[in-house]
Amino acid sequence: MRQTIRVSAVLAVAALLTAACGSSGKSPSSTSSSSSSSPSGTTAGKFLGCMVTDTGGIDDKSFNASSYQGMLEAKAADPGKVTVKYLQSTSPADYASNISAFLGQKCGIIVTVGFLMAQATQSAAKANSSSKFAIVDYPKFPQTNIDSLTFNTVQDGFLGGYLAAGMSKTGKVATFGGQKLPTVTIYMDGFWDGVQYYNSQHHTKVTVLGWNEKTQTGEFTNSFTNLTLGQTITQQFITEGADVIFPVAGGVGLGAAKAVQNADNTAGSQKVNMEWVDTDGCISAAQYCKYFITSVEKGIQTAVKNAVLSAANKTFTGGAYIGTLANGGVALAPYHDFATKVPAALQAEINTVKAAIISGKIVPATKSPV
Fold first, then answer.
1. Which residues are paired to 109 by β-bridges?
2. pLDDT score at 370
3. All residues at 6 or more sequence positions from 42 whose CB lies less than 8 Å from its CB, including other chains
4. Contact in structure between 350 and 334 (CB atoms under 8 Å)
5. Rounded Cα–Cα distance for residues 335 and 342 (Å)
6. For residues 330 and 153, is the Cβ–Cβ distance under 8 A?
7. 256 half-sphere exposure, CB direction, 13 A CA radius
8. Are 54 and 114 in contact (CB under 8 A)?
9. What is the C-alpha to C-alpha distance for residues 185 and 156, in angstroms, rounded to an integer?
10. Which among 293, 256, 253 has a CA at the least distance from the CA of 273?
11. Could you tell me how many helices (H) and strands (E) the chain has, helices first?
12. Beta carbons within 8 Å of 203's beta carbon, 6+ residues apart
């Protein structure tokens, strides 16, 4: 039977952007990659790709780190032509000044990372129509000199929720976000929906702590850098009985992983596990791999790499890229240490649900569609 799950209305973004731009903070942190050989911006025969991080920093084990890995992969694809560098933002107040600094260096493309950088990116693109930009995690702009790299993570979030429900022994799972942004809550919507779908298929009552897709209420750290708060929130979820945790909070997820590790060490056995976000956690946060059932990924590296190379090869057209399960732009990572722990029947169900999402038989609900 055809199974359809409703799609909800679009979450308004204007207020979020206004709030993000009202922040103030420290002056920009200027950091070049060791692979950059062009500090003035250009050299003969070289193309300079430049990236501005969000406040999580270049080594957040999540979307900033994977974005820069995409930059490095673009350089590796054509090392004779492409060189790359980045500037790190320590607060939202740094976004515009970091972009301006790179405009002064005549970068061939400026890649900005994160939903909160939208207004600074658009303003710079409007004022510099001959410059090329790409932004990770923001929908399409009218400007043709911006390449928007977005990911329909409600799809793999749904798979992550279904998997979490299937692996829970306590009947409680949990998720929380770094900030209440559409690019965060779309994951959480998918996770919540996936748990509900598992319940409908198995006649179970697995509960989701930390988020409700219908009411759009839940738990947020309001930070992508406060690991201590991530650990505290996760410990509270564990105390309430959750045994699978899904943090959607960039590097703050490391605090969640620490709480999971501590809980299992205290119990003397591995009773609590988690799912990582954005990247394959067994690669980006390998020290916690034994606790990761899977990772709910988006293909940021490939999208950024392709954007940089299109600019370098003069095939850049702007517009919007949307990563989906169908094109491989979103996915569940391999099970790694859980390859033999996730029951074969559950793995088969995940594959069936994935195919149903790709075909359109299942349409996960979200109020934050791309």
1. 49
2. 82
3. 48, 105, 106, 108
4. no
5. 8
6. yes
7. 36
8. yes
9. 13
10. 293
11. 11, 14
12. none
Q: Which residues of the chain have pLDDT under 70?
A: 1-45
Q: For residue 280, what are its two tokens?
A: 């394959």
- C-alpha dist (Å) from residue 169 to 8, 130, 177, 338: 31, 56, 23, 15
Q: Is 255 in contact with 230 (CB distance < 8 Å)?
A: yes
- Percentages helix, strand, coil for the chain (3-state, rounded to 5) are 40, 20, 40
The pLDDT of residue 62 is 85
Query: CB atoms < 10 A from the CB of 103, how many?
Result: 17
How many other C-beta atoms can be found within 10 angstroms of the C-beta atom of residue 368?
24
CA-to-CA distance for 196 and 19, rounded, in angstroms? 33
Question: Phi first, then psi: what are they for 351, rounded to 5°?
Answer: -65, -35
Sign, CA dihedral 349-355-359-362, equals positive
pLDDT at 45: 61
Do 330 and 152 meet the contact criterion of CB atoms below 8 Å apart?
A: yes
Cα–Cα distance, 65 to 57 (Å, whole number):
8
Q: Using an 8 Å Cβ cutoff, are 242 and 209 in contact?
A: yes
DSSP line for 182-234 = HHHHHHHHHHHHHHHHHHHHHT--PEEESEETTTTEE-B-S-SS-HHHHHHHH
State the greatest distance between any 2 C-alpha atoms of the chain, in Å, as a whole number.
65
Angstrom distance (rounded) from CA 55 to CA 60? 9
Chain mean position to CA 135: 13
How many Å separate Cα 258 from the centre of its chain?
20
pLDDT digits (tens, 9 = 90+) for 129-168: 999 999 999 988 999 999 999 999 999 999 999 999 999 9
Contact between 178 and 250 under an 8 Å Cβ cutoff? The reply is yes
In the structure encoding, which two tokens stand for residue 118, read together? 């939208």
Read off the tokens for 253: 């997820």
Angle between helices 154-167 and 182-202 (to 10 degrees): 40
Using CA atoms, how far apart are residues 246 and 273, in angstroms rounded to an integer?
Answer: 9
Q: How far apart are CA 76 and CA 83, in angstroms?
A: 9
How far is 239 from 266, CA to CA, in rounded Å? Answer: 13
